[in-house]
Each structure stands twice: as structure tokens, then as C-alpha cells.
Amino acid sequence: MVSRIRVSEIQLTPGDAGFDAEIAPFNRAIAHRPALAVGAACASDVAAAVTLAASEALPVTVQATGHGAVMAADGGLLISTRRMRGLSIDAHARRARVEAGLRWGEIVRETAKLGLAPLNGSSATVGAVGYLTGGGLGPLSRAHGLAVDHVRAFDLVTPDGRLRRVDAESEPELFWAVRGGKANFGVVTAAEIDLFPVARLYGGGLYFPAAAIPALLARYQEWVAELPEQAYAAFALLRLPRLPHVHELLGGRLVGHLRVAHLGSAEQAERDLAPMRAVARPLLDTVREMGYDEIATVHHEPDHPVPSWGRGALVRELTPAAAQALSAAAGPDSDSPLTVVELRPLGGAVARAPERPSAVDRRDAAFTLNVLGPLRPDVRDVVPAAGERVLAAMAPWLTGGSLINFQGSAVAPDQVAAAWTPETFARLSRLKREVDPHHLFRTGHVIVPGAHDTDQEHR
């Protein structure tokens, strides 16, 4: 029986009105079943909730928007931070302080009014903090680096219930670990991040017919390697359902989607896009000059909860043979039920050593490969196998690692460990043992305390 010690105005147990809505994640394939849910309104609420959990040996799960949910929280205490929505912007210093419940769309809307941009993700509805603690790969990353490279500080409630300011000076080891270590070291209640003078871009999407996908992938693997760092161009194979919010030219069919964000002039961007436009005539062309507040239209990702399965991997190089293998596994001649099979380019500033090193150490890959499929009743038994077949087809060109934000359903200990180099994982697991000796934070992509400790690891 969980104690009913009051730690916030919103404290719910199963059967209480509002409990199901409080704990529901964005991915409806995940069904949380905590013993207690706390709707935190401030950092003090979070600290009180973690203190309560520690006193009763309850595992802790933290959730803002729920996009990062990858396993069910059974029993224990779930902290919802979605009410923590404070945002302050220092335009002169080009910095912002964002609380844990904010979504990127909300932050971008306010910074864009000042001609500034954060290093946000592709979706407007993803929570900022979860994205930051997983590294943060977005449309500006090739030009400016991963979002985690431009975090100045975190406010963090550690498993002992203490609220700490974590930065390079005050808590250097925790600062290193939380930037890339996800929710293994406590609950981030706020982050201080850099902003960049980006007010506009030339971007959008080119949607091509399925028959053109093999030729598009063949051209893409050569073309994207020559793009300047100011240009971002992901390529996705999309199978979108026929729904009212899906464009009539896209629903119910396979299409190739070139996702473009170019910081140069419209003229330069069109010159750079010309080789891909020459491959085939698009079904739909949304590429145009736009304000940065429209950045989410580049990927045009869904903003409503759905049940889904996903996995990610890092691609060492995209050769002609790799492009052909991907087309065969998920293209027009396959029967793939996957909604998205996507390549996102890395390189540029992502590959360079950041000023403030972090636990994100898989920086030498050329792309992320992300596979996502629906878990509707008619396909839920075949989607995971279809995704694994795509990854198996691409295995000769994969690094064996991943970015933790794209790890998806790969939650087994050895799979989680592979998101980092052995040296980095050993350092993370040793720190996990020190900071969370009772392993309160053990939902999601879990680092096991003390796993893989070695005498040679960095201290």
C-alpha cells in the first residue's frame, strides 16, 4: 500500500478520476500501471515525490509528453512534469531556460519572435527535456551540432531527493552523464540552453511516387554526401494511412519523402536540390521560404497519440549496395507494413568534438536509420518482424550502435549498452551506482548500476 503523504496538488492512485489521463504516454502501445501518479507543478513537487519513492523503495518513472515511453511502468511512482511550463528567454545572451513540461513547438514559437532558434527536434509535440537528455538530433544539427552540445545547465532532482544545479563547474560528472544518459540519474526539472540567430530557412518536403524510390535512393546516397553543412536533407519511405488529416495524394500509398531544411538563400537551396528534383517529378512539393516557427512542417510528423513500434540504428556509410538493400527491404517491391523507414544525415558539426564533452559518443556515423510501424490489431503481429528485417538487410553497413533517442523498443540490457562505446557505458554505469545505489530509476533505457565496471575506466 503506497503512502498517501501529500507531495503535490495532483496525487492519484488507480481508480481516481484523472489517473488514466495523467499516466497515458504518447505511444499508446505502452500501458503504464503505476501504484501512484504525481502531477508535479514545480521542482519542489518533484523533490518531494522522489523523496517519498526513496523512503518506500518505489521505482520512479518520469514522463512529460510521453513520446519517450518504451516500456510499461508497473507499480512504483510515476511523476508527470507536463504542468511545468515555465520559459524565460535572454535574447541578448541568446539563451533560454525551459522547464520540463515544455514541448519544442511552444519554445520555437516564442524564440522565433526574437529571430532566434533552439536546436529543436523534428516534431513540435516532443518534450524538450527528454530530447536533450538523449542527445538531440534535429534539422539544425549539421550546422550547429547536437542540442546536448549547447546545454549550459540542468536543474536535476537526484535519487536522494536533492534538487541540484548541474553544470560544468558545479557537478561536472553528472553534467557529462545526464547529457546523453536519459533519465537514469534523476528528474530534470529545467534546462538552460543556447539559442541561435536563425529566423528563416528554405525547406519543406518533396513527396515522390513509389516507383521512383529505388532511383531516388541511388541518387540520394551520392548527393547528400556533397551537401554543405547549412543543408539538412533526410529521406523517408512513408506508408501513411488514409485519414482526414493525411493529404489525399499521400494516404494509403507508399511515397518517398525528401525532408529539407536549408539555411542558405532560396536560390542556393534550389541549386542544391536540383539533382534530386531531376530524378522524378514529385506528387507534392511543399518546399518554400518559411519562418523558423514553421520548422515542424519539414517532417510533418503526427501530433496525435498512436500505438507504435520503433527501432533505430546508426549507418556507417550509405553505399550504392546499401541504398539498393534498403529499397529492396522497404521499397515498392516489398510488402512492408512499416509507416516510416527514414535516413537522417549526420556529419558536419555533429561529428566534431564539442566544447563541452557529453555521454553522446557515437558521432562518427553517416546517418541514423529509423524504422517505425503501427501496432493496430491488423498488423501488430507482423510490424516488429518487418522492422527487424529492414535492420538485418542493412546490417553490413551499420555501426552496431545507436543514438539513445532512437533506440525505441530495444530495451534489453545489452541493447541499451550498445548505444555507447564500452568505455562510455562503463563510466555511466559506475556513476549510476554512485548516484542511484538503490536503482530507483529503472524504467526505459536503463543503465544497470555498476555494470561493466573496469579498473581502466575514466574517473
TrEMBL record:
Residues 30-198 form the FAD-binding PCMH-type domain. Keywords: FAD, Flavoprotein, Oxidoreductase. Its cofactor is FAD. GO terms for molecular function: FAD binding; oxidoreductase activity. InterPro entries: FAD-bd_PCMH, FAD-bd_PCMH-like_sf, FAD-bd_PCMH_sub1, FAD-bd_PCMH_sub2, FAD-linked_Oxidoreductase, Oxid_FAD_bind_N, Oxy_OxRdtase_FAD_BS. It holds the Pfam family FAD_binding_4. PANTHER family: BINDING OXIDOREDUCTASE, PUTATIVE (AFU_ORTHOLOGUE AFUA_1G17690)-RELATED, FAD-BINDING PCMH-TYPE DOMAIN-CONTAINING PROTEIN. Belongs to the oxygen-dependent FAD-linked oxidoreductase family. This is FAD linked oxidase domain protein. It comes from Conexibacter woesei (strain DSM 14684 / CCUG 47730 / CIP 108061 / JCM 11494 / NBRC 100937 / ID131577).
